[in-house]
Specification:
By secondary structure, the protein is mostly helical. Strands 1-2 form a two-stranded antiparallel ribbon. A hairpin with a 2-residue loop joins β1 and β2.
Length: 170
Amino acid sequence: PISFANIAAERLGDEDGLSAMSQVFDRAAVLLAFEQLGGADRALEMARAYALERQAFGRPIAGYQAIKHKLADIYVKNEVARSNAYYGAWALGTSAAELPLAAATARVAASEAYWFASKENIQTHGGIGFTWEADPQLYYRRSRQLALVAGAPGTWKERLVGQLETRNAA
């Protein structure tokens, strides 16, 4: 049996440790945002490559307006997520007081960008995108799994709103 009687110890954080735990989650959120952004960028690359390769009615499907709009929407969401991830990295690297806001912003934007990119990648691939013979479904699964790591998207949205309310109240 393990016994901790008469062992020297040091308290970490405040009384209940919530402050220390919150800082760990903020740091993890920024790093996870970059992983999600990488997945979203790869999903966009896959969708673009397939759209240029796949032919319909004698021309690549990338030439059709619906596909162009789909790819443009993915690109915009990815760039918003990239900007927010950089903001989070700045706050993390400089130990800025804005880290909780930057982390929540990066996490929400990256989760939404990855989910959207992976979903639209499957749609661009059509029926093959849902099968085991193509990789788009792997990115969709990963986007859903990463969205739940270190807190569900709803939790991070609540944290973001709370940070904005606190910031605007001052």
